[in-house]
Amino acid sequence: MTDPYAPHDPQSGPGGAPQPGRGATPEQTPQAPPTAASPAHGAWGMPAAEPTTEHPTWWYGAPSPAATAELPAQDAAWAAGTPGPGAPAAAAGRRGPGWLGVTALVAAGMLLSSGLTLGGVVAYDQLLAPEPAAAGQSGSGSDGSTARPASVSTVENPDWTVVAEDVSPSAVAIQVASPEGTAEGTGVVLDEDGTILTNHHVVQGAETVQVTTSDGRSYAASAVGTDPTTDLAVIRLDSPPEGLQPATFADSTTVTVGQPVMALGTPLGLENTVTTGIVSALDRPVTATGEEPDGSDATYTSAIQTDAAINPGNSGGPLVDAAGQVIGINTAIAAIPNASGQAGSIGLGFAIPANTASMIAEQLIEDGTAEHAFLGTTTTDGSVSDGGAAWQGAEVVSVEPDSPAQEAGLREGDLIIGIDDVPVADAGALTGVVRGLEIDSTHTLEVVRDGGVETVEVTLGVRPS
């Protein structure tokens, strides 16, 4: 199968065989499977091949504590494979841990991205909306305005009391009811008309949606549009109140490792909860598996990693900098499940970069749908050695005719190891990066060809429908 989504960013992220929940990665590198007891509310993982609780599992979703027993898998958890003005981070500094590093952490309930689907070849053109550390995607606010640089605080202890007070009104709790049960997540206010951004998996299959603002008032809401590919969704209050406070989005390409951050949300149903930490890594590949056997509904993200405590219920909520600007949308955690299969924070949380979230939200608000960048290659995990050093990346298995990849001169056998300043360690990483890039944007691919490293300029197209 071909990868109609492979934009200029490497496809990556831990993948996995289809699981009972949504989002299945087409890669088949088994991680430590879950214990015999399946996680409550549906952990998106495969049965444990080697029962263990010593390895983390990737979770998405946020079941309401009271509804744990009845919450459907997709509404509870997903198994996955990764302010004020401030000085923008240098592009070179954004190179962080590769997808393989995250893959090593994934265990119970998930398969790592190995690109072994369909005879060892994975179609990675379907990229998630993660944001690359490269310049090809400039930031923009949810209202279309230019986003400001993320705040890189020089203060050892930011005044989180002030930040929480300022940002809390822009975060809401979301309660969802479906035929399978109830679930709870978080959302971010985008405008005064009651438009709210959250995760697709939070509202997937919802029959009714209730939104509770920070002052405790609840309102009915309806879906505006959802994008399973990037796990993002937009809903709107049916009768929005006066005085809603829209969040301010930062340019997530300026985020730096080590800067202080705060996560806001509704963990385990506890509304108006804030936790703090730092940005642990950038461009972390994270993949979630879904229900389709061929992995076609898998989601890939080039995520921001944080050690701020994130738990089920935080999904869809904001990750903000020391100035209160949104730098990401919290979406998943890697955790070690307990005997019942449930899991909590161990300091490994992941957020969809703000630039990607804004890009998709604008499209969903416009007509309820979203288009994604397209490279036009089918790739698998590959490696090349020159007798000394070895490169790992996404090996091109085939190139789609008349695609951006063909126009750029990519060939079968090329090993893509980077996009702009973002490393590509495998096919899943390529997908994750590309999904976070804009259509018609131009990027530089690092390709190993004939024993040497070359650069290839490519302008991404639109994924065929």
Tell me briefly what this model is:
By secondary structure, this protein is mainly beta. The chain contains 8 helices and 26 strands.
User: Helix- and strand-based class?
Assistant: mainly beta
The biggest sheet amounts to: 6 strands, antiparallel, barrel
Residue-averaged pLDDT = 73
Low-confidence stretches: 1-59, 61-140
Rg (CA only): 20 Å
Overall form: globular
- Count the helices. How many? 8
* Count of beta strands: 26
Please report the distance between the alpha carbons of the first and last residues: 15 Å
Task: Report strand %.
Answer: 25-35%
Helix content: 10-25%
Strand order in the sheet with the most strands: 13-14-15-18-17-16
Write the layout of secondary structure elements.
Layout: E1 11-12, E2 29-30, E3 57-60, H1 73-76, H2 99-105, E4 111-112, H3 117-120, E5 148-149, H4 160-167, E6 171-178, E7 181-189, E8 195-198, H5 200-203, E9 208-212, E10 218-227, E11 232-237, E12 250-251, E13 260-265, E14 273-288, E15 299-306, E16 318-320, E17 326-335, E18 349-353, H6 354-367, E19 373-374, E20 377-385, E21 390-399, H7 404-408, E22 415-419, E23 422-423, H8 427-435, E24 442-449, E25 452-459, E26 461-462
Parallel strand pairs: 5-12
Antiparallel strand pairs: 2-4, 3-17, 6-7, 6-9, 7-8, 8-11, 9-10, 10-11, 13-14, 13-16, 14-15, 15-18, 16-17, 17-18, 19-26, 20-21, 21-22, 22-23, 22-24, 24-25
